Every structure is written in C-alpha cells, then in structure tokens.
Amino acid sequence: MNVNSKTPIVLTIAGSDSGGGAGIQADIKAISATGSYACSVITAITAQNTLGVNAIFPIPIEHVEHQLDAVFSDLNVVAVKVGMLADSAIIHAVAKKLMQYQPPFLVVDPVMVATSGDLLLEQSAISTLKTTLLPMANLITPNLPEGAALTGLPVPNTEQEMTQLIDELRQIGCDAVLLKGGHLETSRDSNDLLILPDATQKLTSKRIATRNTHGTGCTLSAAIASYLAQGHDLQSAVVEAKHYITAAIAHADELVIGQGHGPVHHFYKLNQPQCRPNHQDLVENDD
User: Fold this and answer.
1) Fewer CB atoms inside 10 Å of the end CB: C or N, the chain?
2) Any residues with CB less than 8 A from the CB of 160 and at least 6 apart, and which?
3) Given phi > 0 = left and psi -120 to 50 = alpha, else beta, which region is 243?
C-alpha cells in the first residue's frame, strides 16, 4: 500500500450520531477539516441528540464486513480510526478485516464508558477489545474512565493518580497510549499523557469553560488519524490534533445547536475573516 498517497484517505469505523456531534459524523468533519479525505464504515445507528442517546441499532456483522471490503478493495486507506464497537462479535469481525487489509496506521478510541459512568461494553467485550484489537493499534485514546476500565484500577481524580495507570496501559501491547485528562474538571488545564514504550510526554492546553463538548473524543482521535495519513510521525500527529481540538472547543460557543451539550466547532477556520471569499473577486464586470 502506498502510504505517500497524493490524497490522504482516512477510514472511520464507528457508530452514527443522528445529532451530528459525535461518532461517524464528527469523524468525517474532523478528518475533512484537518485536510484528509474521509470514508466510513458504520457499526451502529444511534437515535441521539444533544440531550442524550435514545436508542441504538447495531448493524448486522455481515454488512459491516461488506462495508469494509468495499472500502479497502477500492480506496488507498492510509489510516483507520476505530470508535464505537457494540460487542465482542463485531470487535472480532473488525479486527479480522484489519488483519486482512493491514492499513499502515490504526488509531482506536475505546468507546466503553458513557458520560453517566455506565459501561457501554460488557466485561467480556472489554476483554475481547484488549486481546484482539488494541494490541494492533499504533495509538489508543482512552479517557480516564476508559483507562480505568482497561486496567481494572480506580478512575483517577488527580494528575498524580493518572500516572498510576501508565504501567498497566503499557501492558496492553499497542505502540502508544494517549490518556486524556479532560475529566479532571477541577484542574485549570486540560492535560493528556502520551505514553510511549520508554517515555511519557505531557500535553497541556488551557481548559475552556463551555458545555459544548459533545464529540471531543471522537474528534481528537479522528484528527490524529488524519495527520498520520498526511505523513506526520505519531508525536507530531498527536500534538497537531491536540491544537485542533482545543481550538474547536474554544470556538464551540459560536454554534447554537440543540438544548443540551452541543458539539465542538469542527470548521471554525471557515468563520475566520481570511477564509471568507471576497465577493468583489467573484463578480465579473462587463465594463
């Protein structure tokens, strides 16, 4: 496969969010906004909005496999981002297809814990995720509750407690882990830990006061995959994606979407003056 494709193509494998703020929809927006071409494989259809999830309809595994075959047999996919996988069977199916097609880069956002704290995956499915899919990844991007679920340790309440997950997360076997600290809401900054085999790098950004943070995890992991597809090394891709999601959150209140937790502003750059067309340039005079 040609990694240096003229068009960096990124595949997102995830669930659909009818409200448009997370899942497949957020991934496609993030991949597009950061300069890559997005294609998708849908694993579940959710009925949701800014107020919450009302229903989930898993896509039959056979059709998930057909989608994967259709994409990989035609498109030069350089990077894959994996999000919501509903159960052990679909995890096995996706892992098998990724083993078959061997995309150069794999980023897994282990969507396992709801905002309420409830597990979205059964313990057996978490075990399947850890043994089949996560070891294949170049990077996994758990938040703190997901990091706790993967390690069996308590959910960290401080940055010091975050570091206690490092050794256990390394044992998963993937190339690197980005442990996201956004849940530490008492901290003035939003700090993440990029955990490499022999080092840990702290990524810091100012915490932004907004309730419009729906889809931040999806967006960040999709942006990382996008930058990897464009030729960035892992650390550079993570740093660039961290800058992107921070700005998307900072501009989130420019949008007025729904009555609950609205989305981040994926296309905030389009609202900046230098990105707006000069209408004079579009008018051809007959003089």
Assistant:
1) C
2) none
3) alpha
Q: What are phi and psi of 114, to 5 degrees?
A: -75, 165
Q: List Cβ neighbours of 266 (8 Å cut-off, separation of 6 or more).
A: 26, 29, 30, 32, 33, 219, 248
CB atoms within 10 A of CB 28: 20
Q: Quickly tell me which residue has 């979205």 as its tokens.
A: 120
Residue range 173-205, pLDDT digits in tens: 999 999 998 878 777 888 999 999 999 999 998
Catalytic positions are: 180, 213, 215-218
Query: Residue 74 has which token pair?
Result: 């035609």
Mean pLDDT over each residue of the chain, to the nearest integer:
90
* Structural domain spans, the chain: 9-282
Residue type, 174: C
Query: Is the pTM above the cut of 0.85?
Result: yes
Coil, helix or strand at residue 48: strand
Residue of 200, 198, 238 whose CA lies nearest to 109: 238
